[in-house]
Amino acid sequence: MPDEATPTTPRTVLVTGASTFLGGYLVARLAANPAIERVLAVDSRVPRKDLMRRMGRAEFLRLDIRRPAIAKAIAGYEVDTVVHAATSIMETAPHSSAIKEFNVVGAMQVCAACQRSPSVKRLILRSTAMVYGASAHDPSHFSEGTPARREPKRGYGRDLLDIEGYVRGLGRRRQDIEVTIVRPQAILGPRINTRMGSYLALPVVPTVIGYQPRLQFLHEEDALAAMEHVTLGSKVGTFNVSGEGVVTLTQAIRRIGHIELPVPSSLLAPITGVFQDLRSAKLRSSQTEYLTYGRVLDTTRMRSELGFAPRFSTLETLDDFIERGGSTAVVEPDSWRSLERRVVAAAHQLQ
């Protein structure tokens, strides 16, 4: 295994999920790096025209990663670095049996293709913080070695737990392949379409009554920068990635200027669906636990071992989403602060 202190620039990089925000813009960043000889963008869907233009000299291969064609591409182009970012389909699509098949079978094919190809030396997986689940028994901060108290039984979190297992299995079978797993926190930004962004953009935001979940956000630009950093580096292992700081869900809703609607947990997903536009990324019941208990990551390894520091904090990410994301305030933040001051003053008078 190469010395981690002297990383080598990849020669030929293949990125799956090229039609998604994270996969496509990562391809664009890598293609702009003259030190990389060849960048291959893979997806079964053709990226948007503007995204395709940004990819520059990258070569687009239209193929389904669930099919043996991915192995032929990796071997034929003598790929040395594979970035499996196709799991970023979670940005927009509600989970289903078809999506589970795409995620799990696709990852199995990618791992099998890497195992058979002698040219592959690195595999990078875009995982998710959803693998930690969410429950009332969670620690204050999840480190990479902290097991989930209640592992997700369904949805993207379950898919990625299984996929991480396949990727680690590949690392054991091919010890000459460096395996890096990136677990980003909830990604938010003015351009990326995520279910969390769709949820927070609702004028009336249903929340679970009696709970105050703590949240962290990762800016879309920091998510891209982290994946680029990992691709160009040579750090092996699993890394949480998140912006600094924590915000409660109520604070986030008020900062945006929207109205909080506390409801029983069993009604959170149905009522959210009533408010959401048909074109929006839907909130599903699998996220109810997250919006009840929240999730906070320990990012010590990200800074000390990976050597990466996000440019945006959690609050700065939220503010940029508010400023450039097109969300219109229903109640101005100054009105919330004025109301809070009146409530505090009234409480003091009653003492």
TrEMBL record:
What positions does the domain NAD-dependent epimerase/dehydratase occupy? 13-201
Q: What is its EC number?
A: 5.1.3.26
Please list the GO terms describing molecular function.
isomerase activity
Looking up SUPFAM superfamilies in the UniProt record yields:
NAD(P)-binding Rossmann-fold domains
Which InterPro entries does the record associate with it? Epimerase_deHydtase, Lipid_A_modif_metabolic_enz, NAD(P)-bd_dom_sf
Tell me if Transport is a UniProt keyword of this record.
Answer: no
Q: Which UniProt keywords apply?
A: Isomerase
Residues making up the signal peptide according to the UniProt record:
none
Which top EC class applies here? Answer: isomerase
Q: Name one Pfam family in it.
A: Epimerase
PANTHER family per record: BIFUNCTIONAL POLYMYXIN RESISTANCE PROTEIN ARNA (PTHR43245), NAD-DEPENDENT EPIMERASE_DEHYDRATASE (PTHR43245:SF52)
Question: In its UniProt entry, what is this protein called?
Answer: N-acetyl-alpha-D-glucosaminyl-diphospho-ditrans, octacis-undecaprenol 4-epimerase
Q: What is the lineage of its organism?
A: Bacteria, Bacillati, Actinomycetota, Actinomycetes, Mycobacteriales
Gene that specifies this protein: gnu
